[in-house]
C-alpha cells in the first residue's frame, strides 16, 4: 500500500503519513487506531517485539521516549530515505542482528 492510499483510507493527506513515518510528528492513539484499521491489522501489530518474557523492553539502551532522541530520529529519517526494497532487507538484517545480540 502506498502512502497516498493509506492517507486516503485514514482520511488525511499523504504528507501527514510521511511525517508519522519519519518521526517528525507523533501518532495519537486514535490515529494509530485509524491506521491499524486501514491496514487491517490489530493495533498491537505496531508493538510486536517490544515486550520480553517479564514485560520488560528489549534492550535497556532504548530510551523511554525514543522519538525524542535526536539520533533515533536521524536514523529513522535515513532509513526511510532508502528505497523500499533495500529498506526491507536492511530491516531484516537489523532484526537478525538484534536477535543475536
Overall description:
The protein has 101 residues and is an all-alpha fold. It has two domains: 1-48, Orthogonal Bundle (434 Repressor (Amino-terminal Domain)); 63-101. Helix content is 56%, strand content 0%. The protein contains five helices and no strands. The chain has helices spanning 3-10, 14-22, 29-39, 70-81, 84-100. α1 (3-10) packs across α2.
Please outline what is shown here:
This protein is mainly alpha-helical and 101 residues long. The protein has 5 helices and no strands. It has 2 domains: 1-48, 434 Repressor (Amino-terminal Domain); 63-101.
How many DSSP-defined strands? 0
Which CATH-level-2 architecture of the largest domain?
Answer: Orthogonal Bundle
Q: Please give the largest β-sheet.
A: none
- Overall, the morphology is globular
N to C succession of SSEs: HHHHH
Please write the CATH class name of the largest domain.
Mainly Alpha
> What name is given to the CATH topology of the largest domain?
434 Repressor (Amino-terminal Domain)
Low-pLDDT parts are 53-58
- As a percent range, the share of helical residues equals 55-70%
Percentage beta strand:
under 5%
> How many structural domains can be distinguished in the coordinates?
2
Our count of helices gives 5
Counting helices, strands and paired strands, the structural category is mainly alpha
Calculate the terminal CA-CA distance, rounded to whole Å: 32 Å
Average pLDDT metric: 83
Under CATH, the homologous superfamily of the largest domain reads lambda repressor-like DNA-binding domains
User: Rg to the nearest angstrom?
Assistant: 15 Å
